[in-house]
Amino acid sequence: MVKIALDAGHGINTAGKRTPDGEREWAFNSKVLLACTAKLNKYQDVQILRLDDPTGNTDVPLATRTNKANAWKADALVSIHHNALAGKWGSHGGVETLVQEITASKASKDIAAIIQPRIVQEMGLRDRGVKPKNNHMTRVSNMPAILTEGGFMDSTTDIPALRSDAKLKAQGEAIADGLAEYFKLKLKVAGTPAPPKEDGELKFSSPTVRKAYEKLLESKATQEIVINGGIKAGAFGELWRSKWENKELEPDDIVGLAVLFATKK
């Protein structure tokens, strides 16, 4: 199993992280991250952990992000960003990928070398190359880590690409495919059925138990208890929070977690 930590840099209201017209960097970053997550989920044997606030409302401290990735023992970390020069429109521009200066691992450099040209191609922007730079996300992470800059928000050349949802989606998929190349991931086989449950469905000891199960599935209160009282509060661990953030929770997961939550009380 390959564990990938993804990070949409900054938050919606982080000062200075916006275009001259007021568009927020986090909004660009998050679209790329979501596309990357969706594409990674098409590969076998991958787990994904999102390090930033998926709503963007909180600019999660950098130490919190890297602590989370380190504790999870991620195999790689990608921090997704978009650049700016002076906050004024100009003709500068281009894509670059950053690795930690001096101490970057060979794995970090190799991943960056695979992903950088893929982003350049999909965004259709100038190639500024892979660059060494000192920053927290690559310095403090225990795993191979890179920071992508998918174009300049204050560039008259780059901004049309950043405003294109299709381009941002392609950028996210480029990152995912680059990671898949490095880790030699295989795509899931289309149409492969999930392993069947016994006799094709869950077994219940009685009609009363079945009705109780179905009632839990339909209950909004159950979902609120699991999500607000359990997942968001950290009662079930980072894996379940990641599955919820990536919209991967199944109905059976909700019911199971509700029962687990009740037994913890």
From TrEMBL:
Record-listed E.C. numbers: 3.5.1.28
Every MurNAc-LAA domain range: 66-180
GO molecular function terms noted in the UniProt entry: N-acetylmuramoyl-L-alanine amidase activity
Keywords (A to Z) from UniProt: Hydrolase
Superkingdom of this protein's organism: Bacteria
Enzyme's top EC category: hydrolase
Keyword Protease: no
Keyword Hydrolase: yes
Residue intervals passing through the bilayer: none
Coiled coil region boundaries: none
Protein name according to UniProt: N-acetylmuramoyl-L-alanine amidase
